[in-house]
Amino acid sequence: MCALKVKRLAFLTIVLTYFLIVFGGYVASSESGMGCGPEWPLCNGLVIPILEGDTLIEFAHRVIGAALGIMTAMLYFSIQKSNPVRELDKVSKVLMVLLIIQILLGAAVVWMDLPAVVVSVHLIVAMLFLAALIWIWRNADEQRSLAVFGKDNSLQNKFNGLLIVTLLTLFLGAYIKHESFGLSCGWLECANGFMPVSIPAMVQTGHRILAGVVAFYIFILTYLSFKNKWEAGLQNRLMAASLLVLIQIIIGILTIISYIEISWAVIHLAFGTVLFAIVFEAGVFVSRLSRVITPGKITRNQKYFG
C-alpha cells in the first residue's frame, strides 16, 4: 500500500514538475523573469506583491515552485517511511539535493539578472530532477533489491548516450533563447548560406546539429527495435519518441518563421521536455528488463534484445 502511495505521489509530482518547466519557458519567452525585481525570496520587497503584469507571471512561477518543493518533501518522507530498497533510498536523497540546488539556482538567476549560462543550467537541473522523479515512479513498486548476476549493458549505454546528447541540445536551446540568438539563422540557412559566419550563428547551428544527432539516434534505435524484435513496450516508446522528433522539427521551423512567437517557443520547450521524459523512461524500462532474477536462467535482456 505504501509503494502504491509513493507511486501516485511521484506521478503527481512529475506532472507538476512538467507544468513548472513549461511555465518557466513562458516566463522567459514573455520576458517576465524580473517581474519581482532583483529580489528573492521577496517579490518587489513584499511577501505577496501587487499581482499584475510581469509580477503576476513571475510570482505565479514562484508559487508553483514552492508547491513543488512541498510535494517533493512529502514524496521523500513517504519513501523513507515505506522502508525503501537501497536504490530507491539513494535516488530520493539525490532528488532532495537536486531540489536544493534548483532553489539556489533560482535565487542566483534573479540576483544576477538572468545570466544565460545560469538560466540554462537551471533548466538542465530541472530535467535531471524530472528524471529522478520518473525513476522513482517506475521503481516505487520494487519490494526488495534484486540481485544482478549479470546483464548486457550495451542497450542501456545507448540510451545513456542519447540522454547526454539530448541534455546538451536542451542546454544550447536554452542558452540561445536567453542570449537572443534564436534568429541568427533562418529556418534552413544562415546569412544566405549554409555555413555560419558569426558566433551566434555558430551556436544556433551547433544546437541544430545536436538536434539532428538526437533525431538520427532515435530513428536508428526505433528501426533496430523492430528489426531485432525487441519487447513491444520498448518499441512503443521508441515509436512515440520518433513521432515527437518529427513534431519537434516542424515546431522548430515554425518558431523561426514566426520570429520566435511566444506560443511556438513554449510549445517547442513543452514537446522537448516530453521527448526527454520518454527517452529517459525508456532507459529505465530497459534497465528493468535487463535484470537477472535467478542465476542460470535466461536473462530478460537476452530474451528481448538478443
From TrEMBL:
It is a multi-pass membrane protein. Keywords: Cell membrane, Disulfide bond, Heme biosynthesis, Iron, Membrane, Metal-binding, Oxidoreductase, Transmembrane, Transmembrane helix. It is found in: Membrane. It holds the Pfam family COX15-CtaA. Coiled coil: none annotated. The chain crosses the membrane at residues 9-28, 59-79, 91-111, 117-138, 159-176, 209-226, 238-260, 266-287. The keyword Metal-binding applies. Pathway: Porphyrin-containing compound metabolism. The keyword Transmembrane applies. InterPro entries: COX15/CtaA_fam, COX15/CtaA_HemeA_synthase. Its main location: membrane. This is COX15/CtaA family protein.
